[in-house]
Amino acid sequence: MIVSKLSRRALGGLLSLMPLFAVPATLSTAQAAPGGCAQYDISFARGTHDSPGLGSVGDAFVSSVKAKAPGKTFSVYAVNYPASFDFGKAGEGAGDLSAHLQDVANRCPDTQFILGGYSQGAAVIDSVISLGIPVGGFYSSPLPGDVANRIAAVALFGDFVHRFFNGPQPIFITPELGGKVTDICADGDPICWNLDGDFDTQKADFDQNHVSYVSRGLTSQAADFVVGQIS
Fold first, then answer.
1. Is this prediction's pTM over 0.70?
2. Is 189 annotated as catalytic?
3. Active site residue 119
4. Longest Cα pair distance anywhere in the chain, in angstroms?
């Protein structure tokens, strides 16, 4: 798969398309293991215009991780942020996620973290795990090193940020984190694939491919990666 680096012109053109499409979503409720501290805490940031909760991609991803790791215990957290077309508020999600991870780390010294995000939600995750990612502005509660070191795996879906700002090799907050990240772009998804082409083609690609992560089995593929990291 060949992924080209996004241009600022093309990114702006694509973002102008996004209000035309609403990504289907389902609600999820956080689930805590008995005793309040699970082996793994899964945090997921939903995509633009998903309803509050994990969103459809997050629901499928979390369910798949839990099904593929029956001997593990998990708590689940839906990142709290607007997920609106006001992309400047993505930083609110980064702040919320960072605060959640630090809270769990303080209460549950043995819990490790699994992070996931879809579309704008992937940008939220990027803001927490990477250096120099100005999505939604900067937030004021970066992860301390001891908390960052407890991130076991990260799954990103339909993410334009790494390719747009840093190219294929982002700068992570800890050197070893790169090997714990799977960054999945569906073939033909113009958010993370290739924005060259005319308006009608981009619109059709978005409608067909940006919402295909569950139907193509890519959430299950990401879960395989995560379970491999925590096994």
1. yes
2. yes
3. yes
4. 55
d(CA 43, CA 154): 10
**Measured distance CA(224)–CA(92) in Å, rounded:** 30
Domain limits for position 79? 8-230
Could you give the CA distance from residue 102 to residue 118 in angstroms, rounded to a whole number? 22
> Is residue 2 a part of any domain in this protein?
no
Burial of 106 (0-12, 13-18, 19+ CB in 10 A): exposed
Q: How many CB atoms lie within 10 A of CB 61?
A: 29
Number of structural domains in the chain: 1
Of 96, 126, 205, 210, which is the active-site residue? 210
Closest C-alpha among 191, 223, 224, 4 to residue 116: 223
Q: What is the pLDDT of residues 103-129, one digit of tens each?
A: 999 999 999 999 999 999 999 998 899
Residue among 119, 126, 130, 159 flagged as catalytic: 119
